[in-house]
Each structure stands twice: as C-alpha cells, then as structure tokens.
Design goal:
Helix content of chain B: over 70%
Shape of chain B: globular
Order of helices and strands of chain A: EEEHHEHEHEHHEHEHHHHEHHHHH
Oligomer: heterodimer
Number of strands of chain B: 0
Order of helices and strands of chain B: HHHH
Largest interface: A-B, 33 and 30 residues
Radius of gyration of chain A: 20 Å
Number of strands of chain A: 9
Strand content of chain A: 5-15%
Distance between the termini of chain A: 39 Å
Largest sheet of chain A: 5 strands, parallel
Radius of gyration of chain B: 13 Å
Structural class of chain B: mainly alpha
C-alpha cells in the first residue's frame, strides 16, 4: 500500500450525505501522514466492470478528466460508513488460483452472465489484505475487507443478483482473513501443472514474481528473494500458495485442475456458487473457451505439450521441488 | 488549491446530474473549457491553468497509486 506524498487533497473524515458516493467506487487505499488508511475514489457512473481485470476498468475511468480533477479521498472509516448505507450484491463465490491456470477464463465465464457481477483482482482488496501495520488488528482488517468488498459489489445492471470475486494468486496466503470476513462464501482454488505455470512465468514475468513483492507473495524478505535463481523463486511463490491452501481445510472438491476446464465451470464451480448454467449458457462458455481469455480477439491454442517441450533444466528442477504439493492437488477428488 | 476551486468541488459533489454531464467529456481541453464556464456561472474565479494543474496532479497520483 503506497504512502501519500502530500500531493493528495484533504481527506474527508465525515460525510454528511452518504448518497453523495452513489456512483463512486474505491480504486486504491494508501497510508496518510497520520497513519490512517485512506480510500481513493473514482466516479464510475456509466463505466461498468466489463473488463477482464479491475485495473482495466479503473484505467478507463482514469481517462475521464473528471476523475483526475474531482477524484475523492476519504478515511477508511468513512468508506465503511458509506458501505453500510448502500445496497450491495451478495458475494456468491471467491476464486483463488496459482496463476496462469485458467482463472481468467473462469471469471469471464461468470462475467458474461447478465445476473452476475465479477470483480477481477481488485486493487483495494489487495491493499486491505496486504497492509503491513502491526497496529492493524485482524478485527479491523476483516471489517475493512467486508466494507471494501461491499463497495465493489454494488449492482451496476438491474439484472444482477450476485457478485463473484476473482482475487490475486497470492491472496491464497490470506485465506484465514478471507474466511473470517466471508465465512459463508464458497471458495475455489484453480491449479495447473507446475512446469506449465513456471514456463509461463519465465516467458512472461508477472508482478507477483518480482522479488520486490516477495514479502506478500512468498513470505520472504526481498534481500533473500533477489539471491535466488528466478525459477527457484517462482517455485517458492507457488509453494507458498499451495501450502496455504493445504493448511486452509478448503474442501478437496473445491480444488479445480486446469485440465478439468472448461467443463468444471458449469459442472463444479457453478453449483458451488449457486449458479446453474443452461444449455445455451454452456454453449456460450464453450465458445468463450475457444478464444484467449486475456486477449479475447485471439483464438486460444492449447499449449500444454509445447510448454513442457520448452521447459529448461532449471524449470524442471524447480517444478520437481513442488511435486509433493502437486501430487496432493492431483489426488483431490473430482466431485 | 484556491478557495473557489474548493467551492466548485462542493457544488460538483452535491449534484449527480452535473457529475454525469462532466463525466461525458473525454477530451481534457473540452473538459477544462466546460468546467471554466461552470465556474463563471457560479461566480467563481478559477484560472484554466489551475484546472490543467489539477489534471496533471491527478495523473501523477494515478501513476503513484498504480505503479507496481
């Protein structure tokens, strides 16, 4: 979570008219000079969460000069008050994943439904989960998490009856907090063969795998992370995620393998989230799977075999270190 | 930020129809011109330079908040 550098205007600490934030949504949190978390708001208005990722929607909102000039900032407590006054969609499911494993396809499959709002990897949720302050109690963190989630889950179309959140991969490490905040919300974890995931990261490095993010991605100090070969560090991050799932007592039937997609979307994840897919909806999701989930204008080409062929010895060694965890994932029952 | 700019903010924040209207402007120059006229309508003195600075300020904060 970044610290304000005096550029921001005065933080609103009370709000006389809570309806004043009706078409506004939180985009990030930051630490103010008084060490009180503050929430930055953009007006979304007619900008709906139709993009593959939350950041893409926020970028669209940032292109409106209105949001650059009239952006707002409140304390987290004011944000919680605002959340309590506004209607939100019930949270029907949370998607966790180990990255590069079909999670975007799954989230897009639900996002195409008119009755479902999907928020994908929202920055404000990450800010609450990963904020590093010993004086932030777990109770406060849970309260803030619920409020931020409620603010993100406000209905955008009249047909919407539920919200689903797809979170960042490292958020599996914060499962105890997520379960405390949302005890009744079903959580699924998507996984994929470790060689394929590591090859993907070596060829297109992600934010999560940068050593600078080691404290929250892998529970390692940055000074340790930068001394580890990239492949090995990647395996450590993935291990940290899978171990968190192992410790969480997530039902084994909630572990969904890449090779089970796309059918697992309507056969397993849908029922867990209380969503029934009609034959037409299944056809639509199947067509969606035909295209690349992150680049929807491109046909999707399965690359499992090619990834294994491109795996270097260093990647294979790193994946081998994950074998006990991957075996545990593979042995999860299908139903 | 000038007092008149703060007064303008209060006016904008209290009027959702006005917010909808201003949100429709996607070009900064057209937006600045529109807000300048709004200020005049409310007898507020806000230089266009101040509005352009606010846009740059917003971009800089946006960059800070979202730079990995």
């Amino acid at each position: 979570m970044v610290r304000d550098r005096g550029r921001t205007r005065a933080v609103v600490r009370t709000v006389d008219t809570l309806t004043a934030f009706r078409n506004w949504g939180p985009i990030r949190l930051s630490w103010g000079d008084d060490d009180v978390p503050s929430v930055h708001w953009f007006r979304f208005g007619d900008i709906t969460f139709d993009d593959a990722y939350f950041i893409d929607t926020v970028q669209r909102a940032a292109k409106r000069p209105f949001n650059l000039v009239f952006r707002r900032q409140t304390t987290i407590d004011v944000a919680c008050d605002i959340a309590s006054q506004h209607q939100s969609l019930p949270l029907s499911g949370i998607i966790l994943h180990m990255s590069r494993c079909g999670s975007t396809l799954v989230s897009r499959a639900f996002a195409t439904r008119p009755d479902t709002l999907v928020v994908s990897e929202p920055g404000p949720i990450n800010d609450v989960l990963t904020m590093q302050r010993s004086e932030v109690s777990e109770e406060e963190r849970v309260r803030w998490l619920r409020s931020i989630a409620a603010l993100l889950a406000r209905p955008q179309y009249s047909e919407q009856t539920r919200a689903i959140f797809k979170l960042d991969a490292w958020h599996a490490r914060y499962l105890p907090t997520l379960k405390a905040a949302f005890p009744e919300v079903p959580i699924v974890f998507l996984w994929r063969d470790a060689v394929e995931v590591i090859v993907s990261h070596m060829e297109a490095m992600s934010y999560m795998m940068a050593a600078a993010n080691a404290p929250f991605a892998a529970g390692l100090a940055v000074t340790d992370a930068i001394c580890i070969p990239r492949e090995e560090y990647c395996a450590k991050v993935l291990a940290s995620i899978i171990e968190s799932i192992q410790r969480s007592n997530l039902p084994r039937s909630h572990l969904i393998g890449y090779t089970d997609l796309p059918n697992a979307i309507w056969e397993r994840i849908g029922p867990l989230f209380g969503v029934t897919f009609s034959a037409r909806e299944i056809e639509r999701v199947s067509n969606l799977a035909y295209y690349h989930a992150k680049h929807p204008h491109q046909p999707f080409a399965g690359d499992t075999r090619e990834k294994h062929q491109r795996a270097t010895d260093a990647i294979l060694d790193a994946a081998r270190s994950l074998e006990p965890l991957c075996e545990w994932l593979r042995s999860a029952p299908i139903k | 930020m000038s007092d008149d700019f703060e007064r303008l903010r209060t006016i904008v924040y209290s009027d959702e129809t006005l917010q909808d209207d201003l949100m429709r402007e996607t070009e900064s120059a057209a937006f600045v011109a529109r807000v300048a006229k709004l200020a005049v309508r409310h007898d507020l003195v806000i230089a266009e330079g101040e509005l352009w600075s606010a846009i740059e300020d917003g971009r800089a904060l946006w960059y800070e908040l979202w730079t990995p």
